Structure prediction request, 48 residues.
Amino acid sequence: KECAAAWDIVEELQAEAAHQKAERLEKTAFDLYCEENPDAAEARLYDS
Prediction:
């Protein structure tokens, strides 16, 4: 019983790790730059 619960947790952690890795892969270098430098002129967003 405890073993099954432990494996459920392992599977959840693996799924979350895969999800986070996929999210990181979708970001461009520019996206990462903007996140790391939110005050940079290039990172500013303007409403039109």
